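User: Hi! I'm working on a homework problem where we have to compare a predicted structure to a textbook description. Could you give me the structure for the chain below?
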Amino acid sequence: MQAQKNNLIIPASVLLAGFLIAAGIYFAGKGNNPPVQNNPNASTTSEDINIKPVSSSDHILGNPDAPVVIVEFSDTECPYCKMFQSTMETIMSTYGKNGQVAWVYRYFPLDQLHSKSRNEAEAVECSNTLGGSTAFWKYEEEIYATTTSNNTLDPSALPVIAKDIGLNVSDFNACLASNKYADLIQADEQDGINAGAQGTPYSVLILKTPLSSDAENTIDTYVAQNGLSQNVTISGSKKQIVMNGALPANMVETILDAILK
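Assistant: Happy to help. Predicted structure tokens:
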């Protein structure tokens, strides 16, 4: 009887593994669509995106006066945000170094999926308090490099990351325990909701000048050819572009090249 039970358990385990893999493929999107965790259909309206203006209170990497500012709403435990982190690092190494693109990071923790994400957001914010902008971007980069995503990062790793980037661990732990940035993180989340985010990563490109007709046509054609209508949306004013999902660097580069040409 025990042998029969064991024989049943093994196929059941295989079926469960197959289901989890299939679910992962489903949530990763179909065809060319870049993956979004907790994937919605992106807004397809032509209205302007209701997003808080970028200011000195934001976390900005690059030239704040750049022709294109990419505002990313992100969750540190989202595997697709981890993918998009690589995209943005590539974009900043190419377009950021000459002042063409700036990157703004805002928090959008998906609590139902990632109960650890909100605490991790507070950790990232504490790094800024203790070490300024340089420490913020180092911590932000390192937390994505360290986690394997989907709520897998052990909280004990947070002060280790702080120590690795040169922060005072005692001060970091006290800051993290205070939860003093809960309102700031909630405000970022609400801003993302107002801007149309229903999943992560969700980014809004804010343009200094409206898209030219040629640039708009180039982007529209590229979107149509690659089945990205749910991932890339141009606003009514032509001064905002939504990128919904973990677009790979080559896709973002195509959009940026059309804008900056």
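For your comparison, note the following. The beta strands are 59-61, 68-74, 101-107, 202-207, 232-234, 240-244. Residues 117-146 form the longest helix (30 residues). Good luck with the assignment!
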